[in-house]
Design brief:
The complex is a heterodimer of chains A (244) and B (715). With 244 residues, chain A is of the alpha/beta class. Chain A has a six-stranded mixed beta sheet, with helices on both faces. Chain A has a four-stranded antiparallel beta sheet with strand order 2-1-4-5, with helices on one face. Chain A is globular, with a radius of gyration of 18 Å. The N and C termini of chain A lie far apart (40 Å). By secondary structure, chain B is mainly α. Chain B contains 30 helices and eight strands. In chain B, a hairpin with a 2-residue loop joins strand 1 and strand 2. In chain B, helix 1 packs parallel to helix 5, helix 5 crosses helix 6 and helix 14 runs parallel beside helix 18. The longest helix of chain B has 31 residues. The C terminus of chain B is likely disordered. The chains are: A alpha/beta (244), B mainly alpha (715).
Chain lengths: 244, 715
């Protein structure tokens, strides 16, 4: 079932076209990878899907419902959650408080501290942050900070989770644990959209890939198909080379 | 037609002065990123300095002008940069704003110190009485000169910024300081130059406007609020647009003043409104301006919002009530009357904690809400009805939500400016309105300028007496401080802090940001109104002066210096401002100084009566303790003391002995106060010599955090 869908999205900032008729879909219980060179429009796509950036044309659907004009916090309550590439932690709160706070937001006005605490504790342990639960989030190294973002997003009971470069800053072992966590979450029925530069991680967990370049979808399909696609090779490898 | 020309000429004269002031503001903001709230105070200081040289020392005008604008003003600007502003590099917008506010208070205090405010100082215009007649319109030479100077300033600024290498690097500095340094320019030299040019412009505006405002410190200092509107029309970066803004402001005010007779508005409403036109324009520009103005988000990297414990906060509340009850027994009635106001002020200070401390919204109008609370007591609390207290909280709460609306699209310095505009609007217009008829009812909001406030009766229990009121105030303060702690510990409080740290994350996690902002302002304004009610009841009569914009700034400053997140800091603010702690401490010091050191006695006496300068100086050191001294110095030590029963017992025992001695008449009030102070503040220092704040690197004693910090640095 398609839990999240972007149809023919275009976004322009002044004279620059960030997204140019791009479409993608996320299935419940599936992990879709969104890849492309720097500046391809991946983070803009996340901002469009979560409602932080308005579209110039196109539609965003959640569970088959058109949410293009729906405010970010309402989309969150419909089950869309995300993490940020440029970390957006609540640095003044502890790790546990970050997750409690998010759980409380999802519970809405009736959010009670006790209910939020019941949700938060196990989640912090699940992403492996148990030992640092009471540390101020602003003091964590990047790898752990990204896990806080994941736990915080999960605390809102999402149907679809958008992860923006969650593994950068993580060590090799942390990445393996993280891949395992992603597969578990998908098995529980969560739809996941993953933006990641670590190709090993992308190839090992994603069932479906969408490749963006200059705001357009240049290829889509299984990892094996995409890997063989010549246009992807040129876009991707070209960019790799130029970035040294 | 002739009338129109004469309004146009005088309007342009005002506009020219606004333009000079606003240009200085914009120049320092664009090149250093600091929005200088002290710009008006600098103008004021310039005008006073010129007056001193020209009319007290009788120097010829050209010599005085060259000394004042050509030598002293640039030197003062350089001193500011070297001594204060340089250390603001890389700090958050809040710290910058608060530092310039403290500079403003300090300069205001300095001028009150040097120039006795009650003396009259005639300040004639340049070429007084001489006029140029053009087509029947008489233009004073002063105005001609003002216009010529403004034209000259505009041309010089334009040439400097666009045509010199120095100007180019000046514009580059604001974008990236370190990059400019890598390219061979020296950012400090450039900021220093920009601060001296800004100071010269401020002083110039002060000298030119002083004749029409009378030489009085406060109005001259607040002149800059008018210039804010012009600067904001220039989006704080474009000088040409700023000049256009100044023109709109000057002409608009003058035409309205000239043609008010032909408007069908009650004449009673007009005088205050005319004075408020610049701030109304500022509000309109901020609220309906085309693009949303986003300052930097207000976060202080070094700030910590610790989660207070229930035991600690209820313990503190109970302790306050107990101490107040004991004190009410030993203090003379007259002191109890003076002390009665500390609780109201303390509650207003507490009201800053949710909105500024947790929420990070810089509210500069808390005393205006307090004033509305007082007004409610005046009109509804005639027979001491407790219902008036509810109104005193509810009406400001609604006003608070209105004030919060600009925060949907403004942030940082722009939002702070909109709250300043609201406060000045209340000061200049609403609180000063005379009795008028509206909707078939008579309205006399501030009771003709002085409120007469009855204390509340609770079900037959009167708080009319000074003893009863003192204890009742302590209970109210304790309850509100526990409520503030409850907010911090609740999910709602977490959300407020979360919103300060990352609005984007909050929105995508399902938080309705608008509702959250409305909510925190309603809570905080409601508390401020309640505090205002108690403050007014403590004083029993209140004037508009006690609730003006400047008082909001002073209270905020004391709170920031003491620690924005702790109820203990609010108690300190209440005692400091309500009891005149300053006066007491320095007054006593002056008494202790031997008579032959007359100058030292005079010095301490002056310090004692000049709260502004003490607050200002304390605020300038903010960079070192961004969390405030209560949170970084006192509380951590007390947390450790509470964990050591023998120390607690010793402290309690000593206090008990001292109190018994006082009640038995063995010692007087002063020895008792000194013993109490030593035991509460200095003994913890001796017992725990190295407070957790002793090591600058280590934000808290928690070894785990230290380890994490170390590993974070390693990555």
């Amino acid at each position: 079932m398609r839990v999240l869908e972007a149809i023919d999205i275009s976004v322009r900032f002044g004279g620059i076209t960030a997204l140019d008729g791009a479409s993608l879909a996320v299935e419940s219980g599936g992990i879709t990878g969104l890849i492309g060179p720097n500046g391809a429009g991946k983070t803009t796509m996340f901002d469009v899907l979560t409602g932080l950036t308005p579209v110039d044309s196109g539609r965003v659907m959640v569970d088959g419902r058109n949410v293009t004009r729906v405010a970010p916090h309402r989309r969150a309550r419909l089950g869309v959650a995300r993490t940020f590439q440029r970390l957006e932690l609540f640095g003044g709160l502890t790790v546990l408080e970050n997750v409690e706070c998010a759980a409380g937001m999802a519970l809405g006005v009736r959010g009670r501290a006790a209910a939020a605490r019941r949700v938060a504790g196990p989640l912090v342990a699940r992403v492996g942050l148990g030992p640092v639960a009471h540390v101020r989030a602003g003091l964590l190294p990047t790898g752990q900070a990204r896990l806080v973002e994941v736990a915080r997003a999960l605390a809102t009971h999402p149907k679809v989770l958008l992860l923006d470069e969650p593994a950068s800053g993580q060590s090799e072992t942390e990445r393996e644990q993280f891949a395992r966590l992603l597969r578990e979450l998908a098995q529980d029925g969560l739809g996941i959209l993953l933006v990641e530069h670590d190709m090993d991680l992308v190839m090992s967990v994603c069932e479906y890939l969408v490749v963006l370049n200059f705001g357009r979808v240049i290829a889509a399909g299984s990892p094996a198909d995409v890997r063989r696609d010549p246009s992807v090779m040129s876009a991707y490898l070209g960019s790799r080379v130029s970035h040294g | 037609m002739q009338q129109f020309f004469s309004y146009t000429v005088s309007g342009m004269g005002t506009a020219a002065i606004y333009a000079i002031a606003a240009a200085g503001l914009v120049l320092t903001y664009t090149t250093t990123g600091v929005f200088n709230f002290a710009h008006g105070a600098t103008s004021m200081l310039g005008a006073f300095t010129y007056w001193q040289m020209r009319f007290a020392w009788h120097l010829p005008a050209p010599v005085a002008l060259v000394l004042c604008l050509g030598v002293l003003a640039p030197l003062f600007g350089m001193l500011l940069e070297r001594g204060v502003m340089r250390y603001l590099d890389g700090t958050s917008e809040t710290t910058k704003v608060v530092t310039t506010i403290s500079l403003m208070l300090g300069l205001l205090g300095l001028s009150l110190w040097i120039w006795n405010p009650s003396a009259s100082r005639p300040f004639p215009r340049f070429w007084e009485g001489e006029v140029l007649t053009v087509g029947g319109v008489r233009i004073p030479y002063h105005v001609v000169a003002t216009l010529a100077i403004t034209g000259f300033v505009a041309i010089v600024l334009w040439l400097m910024l666009k045509r010199t290498r120095f100007g180019v690097s000046m514009r580059a500095v604001v974008d990236d300081r370190s990059l400019v340094a890598l390219n061979g320019a020296r950012p400090h030299v450039i900021s220093m130059a920009s601060w001296s040019v800004g100071t010269v412009l401020a002083a110039m505006a002060g000298v030119l406007i002083a004749p029409s405002l009378k030489l009085s410190a406060l109005p001259l200092t607040l002149l800059v609020v008018n210039a804010y509107a012009a600067a904001v029309m220039g989006k704080l970066k474009s000088l040409p647009l700023t000049f256009v803004g100044a023109l709109v402001l000057g002409l608009g005010t003058e035409y309205l003043r000239g043609y008010q007779g032909s408007l069908r508005i009650s004449q009673k409403l007009m005088p205050g409104f005319l004075a408020s036109v610049p701030v109304v324009i500022l509000l309109v520009v901020l609220v309906v301006g085309r693009s949303p103005l986003r300052g930097q988000t207000i976060t202080r990297v070094r700030e910590t919002v610790q989660r207070p414990t229930w035991a600690g906060s209820t313990g503190m509340g109970a302790g306050i009530v107990l101490i107040a009850a004991l004190l009410s027994d030993v203090l003379p009635r007259t002191d109890l009357f003076t002390l009665g106001r500390i609780w109201g002020l303390g509650i207003i200070a507490l009201s800053l904690i949710p909105v500024v401390g947790f929420g990070g919204h810089l509210s500069l109008c808390q005393m205006s809400f307090a004033g509305v609370g007082m007004v409610m007591i005046q009109h509804l609390g005639g027979r001491g009805s407790p219902l008036a207290l509810i109104a005193a909280a509810a009406v400001p709460a609604v006003l608070g939500m209105i004030v919060a609306i600009p925060s949907f699209r403004l942030s940082g310095i722009y939002f702070a400016l909109s709250t300043a505009a609201f406060a000045v609007l209340m000061d200049r217009w609403i609180f000063l309105l005379p009795r008028f008829r509206f909707l078939g009812m008579d309205w006399d909001i501030f009771n003709g300028g002085s409120l007469d406030l009855r204390r509340t009766r609770f079900f037959g229990l009167s708080t009319e007496g000074n003893r009863a009121f003192f204890v009742y105030g302590a209970v109210a303060f304790a309850l509100v401080s526990v409520a503030v702690v409850a907010i911090r510990r609740s999910n709602y409080g977490q959300r407020l802090i979360a919103l300060k740290d990352s609005p984007a994350a909050c929105a995508t996690l399902g938080m309705n940001i608008k509702v959250a902002k409305l909510g925190v302002f309603a809570v905080s304004a409601g508390l401020a109104g309640l505090g205002g009610a108690l403050y007014g009841q403590g004083m029993q009569s209140a004037t508009t002066e006690s609730v003006q914009f400047l008082s909001s700034l002073t209270l905020l400053m004391v709170m920031v210096v003491a620690g924005l997140n702790s109820p203990g800091a609010a108690l300190f603010a209440g005692v400091f401002l309500g009891f005149g702690l300053n006066n007491v401490i320095f007054g006593k010091l002056a008494d202790l100084v031997p008579d032959r050191l007359g100058w030292a006695q005079g010095f301490f006496d002056k310090l004692g009566t000049n709260t502004l300068i003490v607050v200002g100086l304390a605020g300038l050191s903010l960079g070192r303790h961004p969390d405030g001294f209560v949170a970084t110095r006192l509380r951590p030590r007390w947390d450790q003391i509470l964990a050591r029963p023998h120390a607690l017992l010793g402290i309690g025992g000593t206090l008990g002995v001292a109190y018994t001695a006082r009640v038995a008449g063995l010692i007087g009030n002063w020895p008792f106060a000194i013993v109490t102070l030593v035991v509460l503040v200095f003994v913890p220092r001796v017992i725990i010599p190295k407070g957790p704040g002793a090591n600058a690197e280590d934000l808290s004693g928690d070894p785990e955090e230290v380890m994490i910090r170390a590993s974070a640095r390693g990555h």
